[in-house]
Amino acid sequence: MKKTLLLIVCLLAALNINAQDKKITLSNASASSYQAGNEAENVIDGNLSTIWTNSPNIPASSWPVTLTVTLEEATHVDYVRYIPRQDIYDDGNWNKVYISYCPTTTGSNFTSIGSYDLKSSSANCDMWLTENGVTCGQIKFTLERGYFYCVSAAEIEAYAVDFQKKDEYAQYFTDAIFSELKPEVTSSEGIEDPMLKALVDNLLTDAEGYRKFRIGEYEPYLSTETLLDILKSSNYYNNYENPTGIYLKAGESCLVAVDGIDNQHQVKLTIKNWVEDESSSTYPLRNGLNYITASTEGNLFVSYYTDDWENAPNIKAHFINAPVQGYWDQETMTNADWVELLKGRSTSDNSILITRSKYAQLAYPVSAWLKYCPTNVDSTMTLYQQVQWAQRDMLGLERYGRQVKNRQLFFATTYGFMAAVNEGSYCNVNSLNAIMVPDAKRFDFWGVGHEWGHNNQISTGFKWSGCGETTNNIFASWGQIHFTGNPHTLRLEDEVTGIGEYANMRGGRMQAYFEEALRKGVPWQLQDGPDYYGTVPTEKTIWGYDADGNYLGYVTTTSRNYDHFVKLAPFWQLNLWGTLAGKCPDIIPMVIESIRSTRNYESYYNTNGKKQVNWMKLACDSAKIDLLPFFEKAGMLRPINSYIEDYNAGWNVISEKMIDELKAHVKEQGYPAYTEEINYINGHNYHIYRDCLKLDVPENMGDGCKVNGNKVIVQHSAIKNAVAFETYNSLGELLRITMYGLGSDDNHSYTQVLYPTNKDKTLNSAYIMAVGYDGTRIKIYEEGGDKEEFFTRLEQAKKYVTRTDPTGSKIGFIKPEFMTDFAAFVAKTDSTVQHTDVRERPYGIWIAELEAQITALLSYCNPLIPDTPYTLTTSSGYQYICNNSSGLKLHTFQEAEEPQTLKWEVVQSETEGVYNIRHLLSGLYITLASNGQRVKAESSDVADAVAFTIELMAPGEFHVQCAENPNVRLYCSNNFIYAGNQTDANARWFLQMKEKPAEEELLALPQTSTDEQLHIYYLIRTDNGEYACNSTSPRYKGRISSGIYDSSEDTGYWYYFKQGSQEGNYTIHSYKTELPVTKDASKLYVNKDTEATEFAISLTEQGFTLAAEEGAWYVKTGSVDLVELSTETHTTWKLQHARTISLVEDPSAGITEDKVSTTLMAHSAEGVITIEGLTQGCIVNVYNAIGKLIATTTATSSTTTIRTALSSGSTAIITAGTQSIKVQIR
Fold it and tell me: Comparing 1085 with 1185, which gets the higher pLDDT?
């Protein structure tokens, strides 16, 4: 209650500040130069939207420019306030200004007061006219060139300090900021000033609680402009140091008591907001009382920046009765303080709550803190502090004595995702979880390090064209490798990506560097990678430059973007080898310091090519090692003349002459050459370089190696201390270089070595060399040297032997007459190899012979015949791909003759070997097969169809894959069909050719049934090929649904037609219920013994419709598809004749339950019928419900059992001698 009353008093007091310093009236303004429309009088018109600025293009002799303001009458002035222009431009913001005054309003004798350097600031500035002020009639400002070589101002104001309120406060307090009451002050009685009265009451009531955040001591910081110049970084550090914990809304006022500001330094109060908006406002501070009325909403910061920050004194400030927001400081506060700070806050509160560590400051909304980090802010700030360590370590700030206490800022926005800007970095408020979570395993070290890395990029010595999204990542990678909670998630080494044969592989991005740079020799900045892969260069006409930066006039060239992370690889490798492996610690910080220490760097190195070459020179000079072979292999020390796309696009021209000069310099210095394979180092093998671990391989070549398609899996437990692997052809030519750990799915226990195969021998892999850190190379595998590979091939050959098909309908199978010789060869090979010394006859020979036999055999495979119906089944042979309104799925069917709806037509496209797949009954093509999504068939227009290729993967087993992206193929998961990059058994299909049903069979009108004979039909939906059936759902019992039958004996799918009351009308009957289809409102039933509804059949091109007076049959889709009557739409159907049943010949005719023999008993369980009451030798027959004999046996005792394939719920008729009985299958 006490705190609530205190807050109310503070708010009321803050809204009732009326006293201000006295503003002096200015009557005139003149200037030595002005621009028409922007005259000097605008600085005293009280309108912030008008400005004065000097005339453009004035000669040098007209500088400096003077601006003189005249007072209405000569009077005492303590300070003048300069208010810069308020539009979006900074042009004309003041730099150096000299101030003088004249005692009269008309005189011409001016006395100099001194000078200020405002450094082009956009903030208001109060300039004091000596310590005690002056009496004057005119004030003159003599101005040197401001920002953008001009000077401007929105307003000039003059003030006399109001000392009355200060004196009034002083009588109650012992200190200059009015924070300590005099001992004799025990009550606020008699105090008329509401602000003062509230202050005294607050201190008497709860001094400790009141002082928290409202009273503080604030430090000076190095000016961000100077720090930017010292570090040569790209963006400013934190402009919002010294958070106060005070928060004001626009229009609220605050009285600030300040002490400790000396005559040499300017201190300001900044109000800054984020998320809700990014407005800010700045107010000069002076010793004594400062009257602040917030023009913008936000947190308050004491802006105290100076180049003399190490000697400048701290200041004290008291925000009298101000409303408190609070902030959290890791160096002085705990998690318990944090929980208290958040107590009672609303989850919809988007006001900013500042947190900071030693070198990091965050500006995130209260709502986000409550959501993502409500209790453990200390851990979150530790993670940011770790990122800051990595940033500053890479900059070499400690090493070179450049460390400063200025922090870097990360703030929240409502736009974008994550980016670096001029005063820090930001993240969208909806994406903050990854960078607020207090868990190193989940924290996005890369994202934060990447953006702060942008702020810290050394411009332009380490940020030439093409480096904009590259060299910032050296900071991100450094933080990630040191602090990530999962050391196996490094960006280059562990990201699952890649191109070509190493697409979608762990480490694919760094592998691209190994291929593009190290093997192919592509110049750096032009090396392809997963990002922008396959981008077509665009043609452009632009200014050309030579290697020295001379204009060449307009030239036409082509350009495109290249993968920024692939560009990072050589810098990352150099850092790993130099610092983590200990070969040349801090090599990159040394290069950065050399750039920082070079005066006029940009004038010496005025082209991108020169900057790149000089970077390599500085690396060699720093390491005192000849690193040029490393840079040459990386593609950096190669001639290039290309236009490089980037935020700051430009030409990169490196000539042979520049390369020769660099080589000559290194040779002249006598630097020794390095002796290690630096280009093969990565974040998971640097320990091998650090500890100088020698390459160690097994005695038996091939041990630890296993062929897996076009890759060889090499186990690191067998092949020890290899740093990379090189694949060669039989001519000894290098085919591939594989990075350590490529494609592993654990803690890098193996590498999937690239091992391409090709009919061209020169492109076919022959052997693999493991490479040691010191350049040692040992052969670990060669073609034909792998026993496991041979037996894998042999098992594949044995599988072919089982895949015979005399009908020629199973695609990829072999007719038996072509299998005889192959089967004999496989059997002989299997027998002979067990007794043959592999050293005399290597497995490679056996493999070659097997491959030759398999290749010959494949020419006899049953071919795929386009425009023919097929079923597509899993390896079980009875799980079929079928269509469904929500997408393709699997349907289980184990009888010989499949339902027509399980058939698909493989349609030849315009391109040879490319097909469209169409559902046979519905005519719908597969139109959606996107990676990770359910496959659907939704259009009868071939223009919408997905193009497929059908590739043989194993004997009789095929991949059905998208022609545009072979990595996307059909596979089954949980009985649904998806598209994706799976290659296992779930993505392999058997294709069997089927006959196409006659069209007239599907479209003809039904033959009507009689009491003697039933013509049974299937009613087939043309939109997805499903069959009308009696619903099995308990909720919709008796309704008509649709589906696909599991057994041809499932009578729930059987319907027959009887002639209606007039020509063309029919009644439709369910065979299962023996009842007609009836209607109840719009619903259709087959279990109501009511008058049959008549339906008219109308033929269409697609099939026919069924309609009663109340509407047409329509399938309403949902969790259960139900057939209803609709007057607005309809479903089109086709008929398929299932069978004809003679009711006269039904063996169950005349049999009723009450006539069953008392001696013959039967029951069923799990499809097995048990019959009792038999005599030995009695013949037992089992019929289905339509009289078809399905099983027979001869009794050997009084009880016998018969297993049937009848479905649950169907009826079996059992005859034994003259006795008959019905039993329901359970």
Answer: 1085
Asked if the model's pLDDT at residue 19 lies above 60, the reply is: no
Instruction: Please state, for a pLDDT cut of 90, what percent of the chain lies above it.
Output: 71
How far is Cα 894 from Cα 898, in angstroms, rounded to an integer?
Answer: 8
Nearest CA among 169, 122, 154, 307 for reference residue 225: 307
Among the ranges given (172-176, 380-384, 841-845, 1129-1133), the one the predictor scored with the smallest mean pLDDT: 841-845
Lowest-confidence pick of 351-365, 536-550, 716-730, 1208-1222: 1208-1222
Bridge pairing between strands 79-83 and 65-77:
unpaired
- CA-based R_g, the chain, Å: 43
Beta partners for residue 126, in sequence order: 81
Separation CA 425–CA 435 (nearest Å): 12
Helix (H) / strand (E) element for 8: namely helix 2-14
Spatial distance between the Cα atoms of 647 and 459, rounded to a whole number of angstroms:
13
Please give the sequence-ordered ranges of beta strands (E in DSSP) within 32-109, or none if there are none. 52-53, 65-77, 79-83, 96-102
Task: Specify the residue for token string 């067998």.
Answer: 718
- Local structure of residue 40 (DSSP, 8 states): G
C-alpha to C-alpha distance for 814 and 718, rounded to whole angstroms: 41
Both tokens of residue 836?
Answer: 């043959």
pLDDT bin (cut points 50, 70, 90) of residue 786 is: low
Give the range among 136-140, 426-430, 835-839, 852-856 with minimum mean pLDDT: 835-839
Contact 1141, 1187 (CB under 8 A): yes
Mean pLDDT of 102-116: 94
Q: Is 796 helix (H, G, I), strand (E, B) or coil?
A: helix
- For the stretch 410-430, pLDDT in tens is 999 999 999 999 999 999 999
Mean pLDDT on 206-227 = 96
Q: pLDDT at position 12, please? A: 34
**In sequence order, what are the residues at sequence separation of 6 or more whose Cβ sits closer than 8 angstroms to the Cβ of residue 831?**
none
Please state, in angstroms and rounded to a whole number, the distance separating the CA atoms of residues 13 and 321. 7
Q: What is the pLDDT of residue 417?
A: 96
Retrieve residue 1070's tokens.
Answer: 């369910």
Predicted confidence at residue 1209, as pLDDT, reads: 66
E-only strand ranges, 1109-1187: 1111-1116, 1122-1126, 1133-1142, 1161-1165, 1168-1172, 1179-1183
Q: Is the pLDDT of residue 1002 over 70?
A: no
Single-letter amino acid, residue 975: N
Residue that has been written with the tokens 């490529």 in this structure: 742
| Residue 199 to residues 169, 364, 1075, Cα–Cα distance (Å) | 10, 31, 92
**949-962: average pLDDT:** 91
Mean pLDDT value across residues 472-492: 92
Give the integer Cα–Cα distance in Å for 112 and 136.
12
Residue in the structure block whose two tokens are 């009077």: 75
Q: Is the Cα dihedral 891, 897, 902, 908 positive or negative?
A: positive
Residues 1044 and 882: beta-carbon distance below 8 Å = yes
CA distance readout (Å), 410 to 348, 360, 451, 522, 802: 21, 8, 9, 38, 66
**pTM of the predicted structure, to 2 decimals:** 0.63
Q: Is the Cβ–Cβ distance between 34 and 53 less than 8 Å?
A: yes
Q: Please name which of 165, 192, 157 lies closest in space to residue 48, comparing C-alpha atoms.
A: 157
Is pLDDT at 838 greater than 50 in this prediction? no
Burial bucket for residue 136 (CB in 10 Å: 0-12, 13-18, 19+) = buried
Q: Which of 697, 860, 898 is nearest to 778 (CA)?
A: 697
DSSP 900-940: GGG-EEEEE-SSTT-EEEEETTT-PEEEE--BTSB-EEEES
Q: 320: which residues sit within 8 A by CB, 6+ positions away?
A: 13, 178, 195, 199, 214, 254, 255, 256, 257
